């Protein structure tokens, strides 16, 4: 396997640079162009596209295309990626709707998979000037602009009644509402991007996240980078049947009920989720 620490050291500046591009547009909203992509795809902005071009050009210049394939939300898919063991999976801006609404809750996702599982991930939260990162077997860290890194860890809460659920403000459906109603919890907070939600769990500020697909579903680039940060911080991410997520398949959507947690009650949360929506799905 390639040296993941070396890859991370080369990728960190790219994540910071993409965040800087987003903040330039965020601070000068008069320059922001917004286009509706159609269907369930939502909006894309000139900030998304500028960050996407920067990330892809920098990654390809640094790592080439012989050993690595590239999959990004804002670039047409090339299924030649299916022939590669190493695939970069990128969301240049997770939380575009929050960016447009100016909630400060958007993120850059840069993940690297090996044989369909994430091994390295970076989630930049530009409005907070923070960079979360994780490497398989090497832990998870938060980095500030001065380069100072501190390890992060999930909370040690072991009772569901103590746990804080982090959820979306907008991507909610009846099935998810039913699960959240039946799930014992201490509180529920709203965070915009999936990267921000997973960072909150990975750093101990929240404990549970649940997604239930409807007409559409989150895609590889939503979960890839955040997953390795969460799991390296001690958390878990699975489908509600406890199976792991698989990346770089022909189908990019992650269908079904997906649960992220601090790991201490993960099986119980998955069981509650399945039981809560079973009558609805019949």
User: Which structural class is indicated by helix and strand composition?
Assistant: alpha+beta
Measured as a percent range, the helix fraction is 25-40%
**What's the N-to-C terminus distance?**
45 Å
Mean pLDDT, all residues:
95
Percent in strands? 25-35%
CATH architecture of the largest domain: 2-Layer Sandwich
Q: What's the CATH superfamily of the largest domain, by name?
A: Fructose-1,6-Bisphosphatase, subunit A, domain 1
Number of strands: 14
Dominant shape: globular
Stated plainly, the CATH topology of the largest domain is called: Fructose-1,6-Bisphosphatase, Chain A, domain 1
CATH class of the largest domain: Alpha Beta
Low-confidence stretches: none
> What characterizes the major β-sheet?
7 strands, mixed
Strand order of the largest sheet: 3-4-5-6-7-8-9
What number of structural domains do the residues give?
2
Q: Would you list the SSEs in sequence order as H and E?
A: HEEHEEHEEEEEEHEHEHEEH
Radius of gyration over all CA atoms, rounded: 18 Å
Please report the number of helical segments: 7
How would you summarize the topology of this molecule?
Elements: H1 4-27, E1 34-36, E2 43-45, H2 46-63, E3 68-72, E4 86-94, H3 96-101, E5 107-114, E6 117-125, E7 130-135, E8 139-144, E9 149-151, E10 164-167, H4 174-182, E11 187-190, H5 194-202, E12 208-212, H6 220-232, E13 236-239, E14 257-261, H7 266-281
Parallel strand pairs: 3-4, 10-11
Antiparallel strand pairs: 1-2, 4-5, 5-6, 6-7, 7-8, 8-9, 12-14, 13-14
Helix pairs in contact: 1-2, 4-7, 5-6
Catalytic activity: a myo-inositol phosphate + H2O = myo-inositol + phosphate
GO molecular function, one term: metal ion binding
Protein name: inositol-phosphate phosphatase
């Amino acid at each position: 396997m390639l040296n993941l620490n070396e890859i991370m050291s080369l990728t960190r500046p790219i994540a910071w640079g993409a965040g800087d591009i987003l903040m330039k547009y965020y601070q000068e909203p008069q320059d922001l162009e917004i286009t509706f992509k159609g269907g369930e795809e939502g909006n894309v902005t000139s900030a998304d596209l500028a960050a996407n071009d920067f990330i892809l050009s920098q990654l390809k210049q640094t790592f080439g295309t012989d050993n690595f394939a590239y999959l990004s939300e804002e670039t047409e898919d090339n299924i030649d990626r299916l022939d590669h063991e190493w695939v970069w999976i990128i969301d240049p801006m997770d939380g575009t709707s929050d960016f447009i609404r100016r909630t400060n809750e958007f993120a850059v996702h840069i993940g690297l998979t090996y044989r369909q599982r994430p091994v390295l991930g970076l989630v930049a939260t530009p409005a907070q000037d923070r960079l979360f990162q994780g490497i398989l077997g090497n832990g998870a860290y938060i980095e500030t602009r001065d380069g100072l890194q501190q390890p992060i860890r999930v909370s040690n809460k072991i009772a569901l009644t103590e746990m804080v659920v982090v959820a979306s403000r907008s991507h909610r459906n009846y099935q998810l509402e039913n699960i959240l109603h039946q799930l014992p919890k201490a509180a529920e907070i709203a965070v915009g991007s999936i990267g921000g939600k997973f960072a909150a769990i990975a750093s101990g500020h929240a404990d549970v996240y649940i997604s239930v697909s409807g007409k559409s579903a989150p895609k590889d680039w939503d979960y890839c980078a955040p997953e390795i940060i969460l799991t390296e911080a001690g958390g878990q991410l699975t489908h509600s049947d406890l199976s792991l997520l698989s990346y770089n398949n022909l189908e990019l959507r992650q269908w079904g009920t997906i649960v992220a947690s601090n790991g201490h009650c993960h099986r119980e949360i998955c069981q509650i989720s399945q039981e809560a929506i079973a009558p609805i799905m019949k």
